[in-house]
């Protein structure tokens, strides 16, 4: 595994609401760094973003295809101090697919959500997930999922040949029912956004498909 092609991007806070921080951390005013993270075992290289050790690492990969609708890969590696972590594919809380994950025993659970306003996001059937791996140890919990429906949605889509804005949110409070993907969860403690060129997240289609077929 290796890191390469480091780039600097500017962060910003989301508007107020469930995915906006009541008292934002000063860490979120610092620059976030994107890089490439390559898994030698799978040969998948991800676009990676990390703010500080207090917040999750998010990794994205997409297949190198011309279609505007394609599966996506998302890895979340979060410190055990966090009760849940959310990822927005459209760069904000509302009207785009939201991936929310949380620890569940010695693994993690993923939930597909959608918000039409500044309320707890509802369960969303427009995006489906396959969990490729999940785990929890003394310091971190982690999950990797393949998503169908996160690249194109009613009202928007990812630009697989250009810059996209993504957003994330975290909470220190555990969810109500960790084993249920429809569990309720509390308001976040912190949020952030970042911009990234998805051409740096592209993986050869054959490698991508082989990876999401396993296990």
Automatic annotation (TrEMBL):
Keywords: Signal. InterPro entries: Cellobiose_DH-like_cyt. It comes from the Eukaryota. The keyword Cytoplasm does not apply. This is Cellobiose dehydrogenase-like cytochrome domain-containing protein. Coiled coil: none annotated. CDD domains: CDH_like_cytochrome. Pfam families: CDH-cyt (PF16010). PANTHER family: CELLOBIOSE DEHYDROGENASE CYTOCHROME DOMAIN-CONTAINING PROTEIN, DEHYDROGENASE, PUTATIVE (AFU_ORTHOLOGUE AFUA_8G05805)-RELATED. Residues 1-20 form the signal peptide. Residues 37-204 form the Cellobiose dehydrogenase-like cytochrome domain. SUPFAM superfamilies: CBD9-like (SSF49344).
